[in-house]
């Protein structure tokens, strides 16, 4: 294979996996115009359109999908081979791509970024915050971070946090105006901050449990969001009751008196945060170092 052939295929794989010329160009260190020219050369050589382009998205054509399914695993194998060779030298360097939930980015990664960089100055962390449960293999991520119950069985998982309690919270001003719910069904008479699931667009049904009795409540209110920070901010500003993991951000607001937990005797725990990666992938030393940092080892 000529060097230009390899470069064209590498560019094609990058565009398919990132669904964007701009993001692929940034990843490859090329200008968007140079990347477009490279793809045109590949399509001309093959004699077929490989990518469907619109003003908003890029996707593989039928022929492009066939080509991608054959060449993408080869690039992954080459990346694994390079990682293994790098590991044998004892040097921790390279780029580590992590796809993570927003809660993990805020609670786990952000507080440890400086420590990780000081320990491994030659590693570039590429952190993508994504609550939509992206396919980390198709996206060529080295690992993902999700709540335990959302992991696929063919992944290797490492627990990063204990199980997490869920809590309903509201501002003192809201409760003074509207009263405090005593049982979960009282929420039907309250303004609540709805959470939209990115996986399928449905509203999340709030879950409660007390002495083995479990309830799921569909709530309504003035704000719908798929971002936890918006829901917490809406609750702090008195717009309604929010439902959230009992994490440092929310616990600190409760300690400050800016939020009050409601229905404290109706609680449920969810599986904690797990880092996961494909069982078909060699775990490079830099991923192991990242895991150690997240676990404060």
UniProtKB/TrEMBL annotation:
Keywords: DNA-binding, Transcription, Transcription regulation. SUPFAM superfamilies: Periplasmic binding protein-like II (SSF53850), Winged helix' DNA-binding domain (SSF46785). InterPro entries: LysR-type_TF_proteobact-type, LysR_HTH_N, LysR_subst-bd, WH-like_DNA-bd_sf, WH_DNA-bd_sf. Residues 1-61 form the HTH lysR-type domain. CDD domains: PBP2_CrgA_like_5. Pfam families: HTH_1, LysR_substrate. It comes from the Bacteria. Belongs to the LysR transcriptional regulatory family. This is LysR family transcriptional regulator. It comes from Pelomonas cellulosilytica. The lineage of its organism: Bacteria, Pseudomonadati, Pseudomonadota, Betaproteobacteria, Burkholderiales.
